[in-house]
Amino acid sequence: MHTDKPESAKRHDDLSDDPMNTTSDDLQSSTDKTESFSSEEPFTPQTAMIMRRMRTPLLILISVYAIAVLGMVLIPGIDDHGNPWNMTFFHAFYLVSYTATTIGFGEIPYALTDAQRMWVLCTIYMTVIAWFYAIGSILALVQDPVYQQTRKRERFKKEVAGMSDFYLVCGLGETGFEIVKALSREHYRAIVIEEDESKLLEHNIHSLAEHVPVLIADAAIPKNLKMAGIADDHCKGVIAATASDEINLKIAISSKLLHPDGMVVCRSDIQSYEENMLSFKTDHVINPYRTFATIFSMLLHSSSMYMIFNWLTGAPDCRLSEIEDPLKLNHGRWILCGYGRFGKTVHQTLQKHQTRTTILEADPAICEQFKEDHAGQADNIITGSGVDETALNNAEIEDAVGIIAGTDDDSNNLSIIMTAMQMNPDIFVVARQNQRHNTELFERSKADLVMQPREITARIIRAQLLNALLIPFLNKASERDTQWTNITITRLIAVAGECKPHVWTTEINQDITPAIMRAMELGRSIKLDCLLTDPAAKASKLDCVALLHERDGEHQLLPDDDIELQAGDKILFCGKHDAKDAMQWIQQVMSSLNYVMSYESEPESFIWRRFFRKKKAGERRNRPR
Amino acid sequence: MEEKKVWFSNERVWFSFFMILALTLNFGFFIGELDDPQHHNVFELFAVIVINMIATVLKLGDRTQLGPMLLATSLVALVQLVSASLVWAFAVHVNDTGLTPSVMATIVSLSGGAVLANVISVILLMIETTLQRR
Q: What's the pTM?
């Protein structure tokens, strides 16, 4: 780590220099373009396109009608008494109109002469062909890919302009889709930029509760980000979740330049990129490998801590039965297969927990390097891939407690798992999954823990966006001992019951908790206990637990019930969904709060308040001292 | 881009031709005793309407600075002329009042409004042309 610092710093400089320049250039040109665009073109590109394309068909229609009408007027006819008669323009236009549209009412007002019929014949063919041509042009225009693209863009722009607060999600991979799904479930709006249109089919984005506008475009180009509303005041945050670190970096830079106040969350698995992103104050950078190392560390710490993590950050709709039973881990030696980026982070975690590790690595050069760096330490490295029995035998698999299949090849990882389980059926198996489409295979492999980078990233970003306090909670909780986590998980099970607990955050302020603010103005002291009381029956408690209390950046784990609330406090709760709804009554409705606090209910509506004031004139309302 | 280089292009000729023709025909119909049906030919009104329609369609999607203004004047002229023709058809075929002086005066004054709109249109065209030449 320390040795390569100068080099990594240099690389990071190069990196930050290059994208900075390109993006600012792109920005300049894109603003120029939009300016000239708006001053020269009065119509939207879509309308201009229709108008231009429809010019010729319309001209042909008008001319054909004009010729037909004129002919009908000029050709002499005979009325019902045999007198010569000329059609007026009115009658001629009437006759041509119903003939051209193939309605054909007949010869009105008088039977036509043969000369007139001859002209009607010409009229029929001329006008019908003209109509076909016009309709054909419209259909061709509608099917034109360029036209459809412009129409979609225009519609997208309109949707973005009409949006209230939203998050911008770049990349609709598995991570992106999970985030959009979670946002939609909590009734937050999201906008998606994705280059690959087939991803839309893969994830049925239209089945979500909230409508999600999607822009099919390259998120690395600032103009597209701008179109998707990155500079909009309503854009609350940008999530860069594309598969490429470089694109994520560009998105983060564009976001910080175009909308400096907005929050940026980035996915990144290469350290130099991560450092680069953090250098210009990207709010959160999520590295799936390091995140996994943290999770793994929780697991090594205690299986109940891992369970707490799994519960609180899991997808909101999974049931308790879907979450596996507490994982049983014995202390002892681990085998780690593959010493790449993933292997290194996991090894550091193992070292932190003073766990002895045997490493299997196929590349001899890496083995040599490892031996140099870790000379004199207990951990040893063996050259071999781990897919065959000899290597695993060399690593003495019989007396190892766990094995981590962490190579970057899924087939190898699966092979390692299967061989290891044959040789030592009791071994704890951790597998790294690289490709999404292998999910089913890994499920079947009966590995105790499967690490899916995309799923982990989605979990953390979801927690970050919806309940930012979850992260400090998990960090603080990891520092506690096993006994503490066991007690906590018992409490969580007690309140949540069968379903996965719902997690939510409350901030004491005028918007979210008006009733509490009002009570504070009246000089009452509100304790956390009030929030946890059932507003329908104050003798009972709501099914929820306060996990974390934040005041002025200070975090308190599992705050006491008699803590006094202040404006600006943030509290993280966990419990049943009903409890969240019930709590909102206490937070927002004065009479509910009064009931919970055993105050006499106060008149709420305007008329009632006036009435009470008169009735109780001179008399002080009873307030407990 | 190409349009700017060769401003006197084929398309421009037809464009100007129909706009000026719309004005001249319109003027021809309008001129004469206001309420005398003898002075205002029905064929001329027909021609004015058709030419105005063509001029309007030519202005559709015109992407120059004055494009929308030109389109607006043409639409105004068209509304005036179509209402004139409706008054005519109504008087002759529906009410059977025939072309009395008062009906004729209405028709001709409506077309007079269209003349004004067409004049504005031609003036705008001239302004645009001079601007482009510089």
A: 0.69
User: Which chain A residue has its CA at the smallest distance from B91's CA?
Assistant: A90
Contact yes or no for A229/A166 (Cβ under 8 A):
yes
Tokens 């006008």 sit on residue: A127
The C-alpha angle with vertex B70 and arms to B67 and B76, in degrees rounded to 5, equals 140
Which tokens belong to B85? 């023709």
C-alpha–C-alpha distance, residues A448 and A326, integer Å: 11
Q: Kindly provide the ipTM of the predicted complex, given to two decimals.
A: 0.89
A66–B57 C-beta distance less than 8 A = no
CB nearest to B68's CB, from A42, A49, A70: A42
Q: How far is CA A108 from the centre of its chain?
A: 66
Rounded distance between C-alpha atoms, residue A54 and residue A137, angstroms: 7
**From B63, B67, B92, residue closest to A88, measured CB to CB:** B92
CB contact under 8 A, A62 and B53: yes
pLDDT of the residue at A498: 65
Distance of alpha carbon A403 from alpha carbon A396, whole angstroms? 11
HSE toward the beta carbon, residue B72, CA cutoff 13 A: 7
Chain B residues whose CB is inside 8 A of the A51 CB are 60-61
CA dist A184 to A167, A471, A518, A573, Å?
10, 21, 32, 20
Q: Which domains does chain A have, with CATH numbers?
A: 5-39+160-286 (3.40.50.720), 46-143 (1.10.287), 289-475 (3.40.50.720), 501-615 (3.30.70.1450)
Distance of residue B11 Cα from the nearest chain A Cα, in angstroms: 12
Question: What does the domain layout of chain B look like in residue ranges?
Answer: 2-133
Name chain A contacts of B72, Cβ cutoff 8 Å: none
Inter-chain contact B54–A89, Cβ cutoff 8 Å?
no
Mean pLDDT by 10 residues, chain A (625 residues): 41 40 40 40 72 89 95 92 91 93 88 92 94 93 88 89 90 87 86 88 82 89 89 89 89 89 86 85 85 85 81 67 60 86 86 85 84 77 80 83 88 89 87 84 85 84 86 87 84 76 87 87 85 84 88 88 87 86 86 80 72 61 47
Query: Are the C-beta atoms of residues A279 and A265 closer than 8 Å to each other?
Result: no
Asked if A89 lies within 8 A of B42 by C-beta distance, the reply is yes
CB contact (8 A) between residue A51 and residue B46? no
Of A43, A59, A88, the CB nearest to B57: A59
CB pairs under 8 A between A and B: 49
How far apart CA A484 and CA A487 sit, in angstroms, is 5
Residue of chain B whose alpha carbon sits nearest to that of A57: B57
Partner residue opposite B89 with nearest CB, options A42, A52, A90: A90
